[in-house]
Write the C-alpha cells for this entry.
Amino acid sequence: MTNHRAAFLLSVLLVLSGSVACHPVNTMPPPPSPSDPVKHYDLEIPDALEIKAVSFDATAFSEVSGAGNVTSTQIGGRAFLKVYAVHRQTGEQYLLIYEDIAHRKTPIQVIRFRPVPDARVLAP
C-alpha cells in the first residue's frame, strides 16, 4: 500500500470515528418568532414531593464538520430544567433534572440528598 493511500484511509477512519463518537444531542428549543403561541408543558413529579425552587440552564456548543478545505459549523445546546423539591412527610431533599421537555415529561436524573455525619464530608 502506498503512503498516500494509507494516509487517505487513516484520515477517513479518523473522520468516521469522530463523527460517530462525538455527535452531541441538541435539546435546546428553537427560538420563537413574535407570532408563535405560548408553549405549555406538563412535567411529571411524584405527588409526595413539594417543589421549593426551579431553574432553567442551557449550555451552547459548536458542532464542526468537514473535510479538505470545506467545513461547516452548527450551533446547538443542551437545556436543563432543575427542580429542587422536598418530600412532604420525610423532609428528604431531591434535585430532579429534566431535559428536552418538549419530548420527555419525566426527569432524566433524580438526586436524593442524604444526611451524613459532618466528619465524613468535612474531613480535610
Observations:
- The first helix runs from residue 3 to 21.
- The helical segments are 3-21, 118-122.
